[in-house]
UniProtKB/TrEMBL annotation:
Protein name: Peptidyl-prolyl cis-trans isomerase
Coiled coil: none
Alphabetically ordered keywords of this record: Isomerase, Rotamase, Signal
InterPro entries: Cyclophilin-like_dom_sf, Cyclophilin-type_PPIase_CS, Cyclophilin-type_PPIase_dom, E_coli_cyclophilin_A-like
Protein EC: 5.2.1.8
Domain PPIase cyclophilin-type, residue spans: 26-180
GO annotation terms (biological process): protein folding
Principal EC category: isomerase
Signal peptide per UniProt: 1-19
Family as reported in the entry's similarity comment: Belongs to the cyclophilin-type PPIase family.
Function, in words: PPIases accelerate the folding of proteins. It catalyzes the cis-trans isomerization of proline imidic peptide bonds in oligopeptides.
Amino acid sequence: MVKKIAAAILTMFSITVWAEPQIKFETSIGDFIVELDSQLAPITSENFLHYVQDGSYIGSQFHRVIPGFMAQGGGFDAKLEPLKTHPPIINEARNGLRNDTATIAMARTANPNSATRQFFINLADNQFLNPTQRQEGYAVFGKVISGFETIQMMAKQPTRTIGHLNDVPVTPIVITNVTVIVD
């Protein structure tokens, strides 16, 4: 009888577990999985998921990789042509998430509210990218939860300058597939 009462009480007061979206990236050098933080970065996460779900990250490449800093991708196709973007989003850098190793953040221009589709994965704790009283910072919206060694392998690839783009991997690192595995 006590077990039935305890079960009834637990059922009445059960907490719904919120599963954050997880996205699997397949690239030409390996796979990795990112878990978004849609609670602390709702606008950024929704924006990122829009590009994932419309399939436009497939065929794009990591066009800027700097060892000890970050790997940036999502904005250029295999020929380094810029990909179509949706309107920019507001900067959610003051959400409490930090630019620590293995986190994913939005790339932007000098305008804090200019992020569209390009993202980067931190290869180190990049505290200088976090917001301060003097700067808005770069919005972190998730973290790599599996396959971070793929990102580290990106940083070991030789790079070159092509036109106005610096630190471009000599052998393109192409995103071959992107799948939402937990929604």
